[in-house]
Design a protein that fits this description.
Blueprint: H1 27-40, H2 48-55, H3 63-78, E1 95-101, E2 112-118
Antiparallel strand pairs: 1-2
Helix pairs in contact: 1-2
Length: about 120
């Protein structure tokens, strides 16, 4: 993906429902890519929402899921060097808030949740 074109957004507006269509694919490769994106979303919170969407399908990914992951990677290529940097200090405090949406997923009615961390 080094020579790929870049994207201005990690997901298209209103395209959440159509992302997840396509043939079944290699689950191991998909899980490795999404796992790395989950780790990266802590320093790039602009991808947190779309990474949470694609991570819901780690047990049975399709080609549409992989296309969505590739779109996130193309977006990250455009935003290199724009991550958050956390510096260790003595007076730093951490506040974390979480919320859950019971049966809120439009695809399978599963519960989704989110969090916000402030340092």
């Amino acid at each position: 993906m080094l020579g790929c074109r870049t994207n201005n957004t990690p997901i298209e507006l209103g395209n959440k429902d159509r992302l997840f269509e396509g043939e079944p694919m290699n689950k191991t490769m998909y899980q490795q890519l999404v796992g790395k994106l989950i780790y990266l979303s802590h320093t790039s919170p602009d991808i947190a929402f779309v990474v949470s969407l694609v991570s819901q399908y780690m047990h049975d990914p399709g080609q549409g899921h992989l296309d969505a992951v590739h779109k996130i990677l193309r977006y990250l290529k455009l935003s290199l060097g724009k991550e958050l940097f956390f510096k260790k200090t003595k007076d730093s405090t951490i506040q974390v808030y979480t919320d859950a949406n019971w049966a809120g997923s439009i695809n399978d009615r599963k519960t989704t949740s989110g969090y916000c961390s402030m340092i």
